[in-house]
Amino acid sequence: MTENTLNRREAVKRILADRGDTLTVSSLGGPSYDVAAIQVDFEQDFPLGGAMGQATMTGLGLALSQPKRRVIVFAGDGEMLMSLGSLATIGAEKPDNLAIVVIDNEHYAETGMQRTHTGRGIDLAGVAIGCQFPVVRTIRTSAELEEATPLIRRAPGPVFALLKVSNEVGPLFPRNRDGVFQKMQFRRALLGRS
Amino acid sequence: MSDEQSQAAWPHTIYRLLKEAKVAQVSFVPDGGHKQLIQYCIDDPDMRTISLTTEQDGVGLATGAWLGGVRSTLLMQSSGVGNCINALSLLRNCQIPFITFVTMRGDFGETNAWQIPMGQSVKPVLEEMGMICLRAETAGDVEETVRAGLAMAFSAQQAIAVLLSQRLIGAKVFK
């Protein structure tokens, strides 16, 4: 198994550089921190702090309801392994404004760095190809990240990007976990005072 | 499903009330009891229907839809309720307006013992997760119950399960 060297925080920051009106949904644990590390409690981000396995479908619901906005889901490899069926649903529904970015460190970082199946040869990009995603990339280097970023941001999707990252976990910091607050600020920013 | 059931009026009542309530997205894991309602929704060009691989995915989907300003509902059989439990954290922690229509098995007149454990647990487990259960026992209950559920979901911002009794649907007959 080749060693992964990409830094997850830097990679997510690169993908979301000059993000404009891009919306994100992120899964519990590391991915929500990776997104919040750019701008904590930002109103165009909806970070999950639990409900493992629901990030990709929350992203699909948002993408279908806001077809003119780009929606990027950042999911951990553990999260994605828990909801493989959602890739089949997304592949079948074909939302062209949705991108799924799996931040794959091949471990359950939150719970003691136990190895996930992706560290044992299971290829989530292969699953996405099988689920008929029209754009699928595996990213291990900065050059590959540069090539894939415009696709994640703008290519007709659904796009699937497997970001192979190192085990390094970035610093943790205080962020809001009040789901009602997050819902309210997200909806107000997106929909106005409705 | 018998021909008699396929002519029942209550599925159209639910469809009509979903339209009145401006529910524009309908997800489901297919169930025989929901066959007619699913078809009405599929045939409606203004409704987006999403077939799921597991019922819990309908919870995330409805959450995302609500974040984007669209009302969504989940149609499932009682056995699917068990698949949803942890996903319901989303609804409770974020106070997402939600309504699901559950066709009951393991209920009135059930002949398949495998359906009993989950069917009999639907109401207590949903209530433990903070959902409010309303039950339609007969065809005469459907309109009033569904109206009440939609109002509680989208006006009072609650998570509602409308349980459609096996007495209403008709127990599946194994020959």
TrEMBL record, chain B:
GO MF: carboxy-lyase activity; thiamine pyrophosphate binding
Gene3D superfamilies linked: 3.40.50.970
Keyword field: Decarboxylase, Lyase
Thiamine pyrophosphate enzyme N-terminal TPP-binding domain span: 13-103
The keyword Acetylation belongs to this UniProt entry's keyword annotation: no
Record's protein name: Thiamine pyrophosphate enzyme N-terminal TPP-binding domain-containing protein
